[in-house]
Amino acid sequence: MILGLLPLVLALSPTTLPDAPCIRPSRAGTQVQGEVRVCPGRYRISDTAERGVIIAAASGTRIDLSGVVLESGDSVPSRFAGIGISSRGVDAVTITGGTIRGYRYGIRIEGGKNHRVSSIELSGSRRLEVRSTPARPDSADRLEILRRDVFEPYGGGVLLLQTFGASITGITARGAQNGIGLIEARNSYVADNNVGGNTGWGIHLWRSTGNIIARNRVDHTRRCESQVPASDCGAAAILLRDASDSNTIVDNDLTTSSFGFRLAGARPQLRQSIGNLVHRNDASRALGTAFTAAYGWSNTFLENRADSSAIGFRLDHSGGSTVRGNTVIGSRSAAIVSDHGSDNAIVANVLIGGSVGIRIDAPEETGDPSRRYRIDDNVLARLDQGVMLKKTTRAQLRGNLFDGVGDGLVLDGAGHGSEVTGNIFLRASRWFIDAPDLTAGGNYWATADASSATAKVKGRISIMPWKPATAAGY
After folding, report:
1. Cα-atom radius of gyration of the chain, to the nearest Å?
2. How far is the C-alpha of 30 from the C-alpha of 21, rounded, in Å?
3. What is the distance between the alpha carbons of residues 115 and 61, in angstroms, rounded to a whole number?
4. What span, in angstroms and rounded, lies between the C-alpha atoms of 156 and 171?
5. d(CA 459, CA 413)
6. Which SS3 state, helix, strand or coil, does residue 141 take?
7. pLDDT (tens digit, 9 = 90+) per residue, 201-226?
8. Which residues neighbour 188 within 8 Å (Cβ) at sequence distance 6 or greater?
9. Over the stretch 303-340, which tens digit does the pLDDT of each residue have?
10. 262 within 8 A of 242, measured Cβ to Cβ
């Protein structure tokens, strides 16, 4: 019995006795339990075995790092290894205060429930060098977003692995590659953290469900932005993939990132991510797409901002999803794009300035069909084209306002059966509607009479019954 306890006793300094106020770890693998206060000061301890410099060895362990700096001593970010504080298979570990830097992971918690991490400075974890330049892009800079065995070793400020009910609040993890990672984590609360200014992912989820990601600062998460145009190297302020379902992403600052919010999927490697709510986030000034979802189902984008981005919202091979009440001003390419989707609703968005307001298409011959879209009550202004539908069947467009557009509604032959009614056409420099044939009666027109409206449509288009825009309050 005595010999069995000897490694634990040796791992701690004599100050870990019950009457001692704090401990002074001197080497990696220091195991602690109960109420633990680390003596204030700077500790330079490497962890080549990657077990953890300090290991929470029992449930209910509380570690206070106030006034502590724990660092690896390595000065090359791409070589950082080890873990500052770790736990495995225990419950209710609490870690607060202090600074941890220079490791692959500042904190790594595997298994267990009800963990708490708060008010810790975790900036400066592992970071791979970015070699791309405008003259010479380097494919090695592209991050692997699909394979866990590749991306987990990237490191970060905090990693939750197979946990339940954990909380991460008030931490800072900037100036590295990744901030906070959730892998097979459920019901986590990740709020009020500062994890921007990284080169990979501010917050990333893999097979993680029921988590709340709220009020985090995840701005300036960028990679390969020196290229012209900026290459997609896989960076995103918030990244979800592989059956990351029923998460709530709310009130986060995702501005000026390569991608703001990215829900990634690919068949057959990854399963769909379903039922996520993305609410009141700001991903304006994205180098690429502000909000994107690929191979998802029943995801909702509600009241977000995506100004001055290449694309505001993009759905690829996604279905049953809703884009409602969002604002996109000054998109560089298109405000909302959806390819190979079905049963999606694009409703009550304000889309002002740019090339295209809403573009729906099925460009790949072997891809999923594009069908059954509901496009209602959107404001489309100062756009070259308001709504463009290609290879899309059974669409419904009702109550949209077209004002100051080049072309209001553009359809190809696949859209001839679309329902187009109750829309308001105010100003178009070319055509209110451009389509081979379409029934468009019951809309409102800013023209003196029906014949004047007929002169502003291209194709075999019936506009009767014609209604004046004044009847809709314009």
Report:
1. 27
2. 17
3. 10
4. 12
5. 11
6. helix
7. 999 999 999 999 999 999 999 998 76
8. 160, 163, 165, 166, 167, 168, 182, 208, 211, 212
9. 999 999 999 999 999 999 999 999 999 999 999 999 99
10. no
